[in-house]
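Hello again,

I reread your note about wanting to compare the complex against the isolated chains. To keep things tidy I'm splitting this into two emails, and this first one only covers the full assembly. Below are the input lines as submitted, including protein chains and any nucleic acid or small-molecule components. They are followed by the predicted structure of everything together. The single-chain runs will come separately.
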Amino acid sequence: MAFGGASLALAALVLVSCASAVVATQYTVGDTSGWTTGTDYTTWASDKKFKVGDKLVFKYAGAAHTVDEVSASDYAACSSSKVLSSDSTGTTTVTLKTAGKHYFICGVTGHCSGGMKLVVNVAAASAAPAPAPAPTPAADTPDAPDTTPTTKTPSSASSSDATPKSPATAEVTPRAKESSTSGATGLRAAAWAGLALAGLVAMF
Ligand SMILES: [Cu+2]
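Full-complex prediction:
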C-alpha cells in the first residue's frame, strides 16, 4: 500500500514536471541587446515559436524607452495614441495570453520608425493550433488572388514536362529486369525451402 502510494505520487510528480516544461517559455526580447534602438526585432522573432503562456521580457533603461502594446494598424503607423498597455519601468514582462499576433512598439518619438518595434505570432498552447492560423488567412485577403497565377504556372510547366517523360519510360525496362531477377531469387528461396522441408522429412 505504502509503495503503491509512493509510486503514484512519483508518477504524478513526473507528469506535473513534464507538463510545466511544456507550458511556458520566457524570452528576453533582443537577447543581450535588450529593448533598444538599432536592433532588428523582426530577425530576433523570426526563429522563435511563441505560444500562449509564454512571456516576453523587455529590458531597457527605464524612462529611456516604453513598451506599448498596440493594434496592427498602430504598429504599422508607429502610433502610440491608443495603446492597449504601456510600461516604462525598465523591465516589462508581458505574458502572451491569447493566440494571434501581438504588436509592441516604443512610444518615444522616432524610436519605432527607427525599427524599435516587435510583432510576435502566438500559437495556441497545445491541442488546438487550428484557431491560431485561422485568423491569419482571413486578415491576409490579398493572398487569395495569388492562387490563380500559381495554378496556371504548373499547367504550362507540365506541357514542357511532357517531353522529358520519354527517358522516364525508358527507365521502365531496367526495372522490369529487376523484378524478373527478384522473381528468380524468390524461386531460389522456394527451392531452398523445399530442400529444407525434404531434409526435415528425411530426418523423421
Ligand atoms: Cu525607445
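For quick reference: The pocket of copper (II) ion is lined by residues 65, 106, 108, 111, 116 (CB under 6 Å).

B.
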